[in-house]
Please model this.
Amino acid sequence: MDISELTQNQIKPKLPEGKEFFVWLTHDVDRTDKTFFHSLYYFLKEGRINHLKNLFSGRNPYWNFQHIMDIESRYNARSTFFFLSESMKVDFKNPKSFVLAWGRYNIDSPQIKSVIREIDSAGWEVGVHGSYNSYNDRELLLSEKKKLENILGHEACSVRQHYWNNLIPYTWQLQKQVGFRFDATFINKNNVGFCENAYYPFKPFGDDFIVTPTVVMDTYLADKAKGNLVRGKEIIDEIIDLCSRKKTVMNVLWHQRILNRNEFPLLYDLYVYILEAAVANNAVFILPFKMM
Model:
């Protein structure tokens, strides 16, 4: 099936009076602990000594869930945290598996379960960050959904596949079959803006399963702006202007590990700017199950 056929059944969500567009804030929780190797990698990549300081401070810069919620609360915003349950094992014959499998957290650990429940009870949403191979494996995706639901004590409605793995339309069919209602995996890879001119959430199968395109991701924006804060803000303004004119949904992805100003000052400031600019331009922060 052609992608244009799948995206043609687009939905124009009804905005409250006086509001211009919706903003769906999301955070993919890929890792919750910054290891020595991650610290060294970012230090060599960016040359910022702060990437190494955490090794001696006793603090974990990736464990900033409450800080993120505090920031968003200042703007009367809520967001979705997508938690990953990666079951892939390290394969010494496959170097790629080290990146994908090594150092991942255990979603069943008491600490992770506790923070998931805290996020959920505070009024934020917790969704499934489908593991690397789950986009093509119904039983694996179903098991990850059930695992999160057992922690939450209620249904998990939203999903985004890890590494944007998406076999269209098969992955959406699997997501629908296992009971998801909202997917956020559709994106313009390595860029910002709307993919395939799909300016609105759409129903690929004409039923209640809805895909909301992701419009801007932290690292893609940084690359597009070439690390320049002013240019980054200009790009955000352009996206907001388009979303306002289209009266649509601006789906934003900022990984939770990025929201640490000591280590990622540019991306931290750009996220805060998105919140400020959204408020200034009469946006509505909303979660998908409350949107449709």
In short: The radius of gyration is 18 Å. Residues 229-246 form the longest helix (18 residues). The chain has a mean pLDDT of 91.
